[in-house]
User: What shape does this take?
Amino acid sequence: MTEKKIGNVSVDVDAEGFMTDPNQWNEDVAKAIAKELGIELTEEHFNVIRFMRKDYQENGTVPTIRRLNKVGGISTRDLYRLFPEGPAKKAAKISGLPKPQGCV
Assistant: This one.
């Protein structure tokens, strides 16, 4: 585990840069991570992020794209538009959650 400064906050991250303590997350951290990934967050992004964080808190696992579709009501097309080239992985990273299962 490594400590990384994201924006004005120091957070614990794994070798791939995913936060290891979701409690260190806040919206400013999300904006800083998104900026590193070349994404400018909108309210539509935050709707996905809030769903992911709530679902993670309730179930203890990062939601898959399928769960985001079925339970979150977010289409795959919208996920790829909002988080290009790996929506589950990028959305989880920006949400301050662990890397989703099955992501390479």
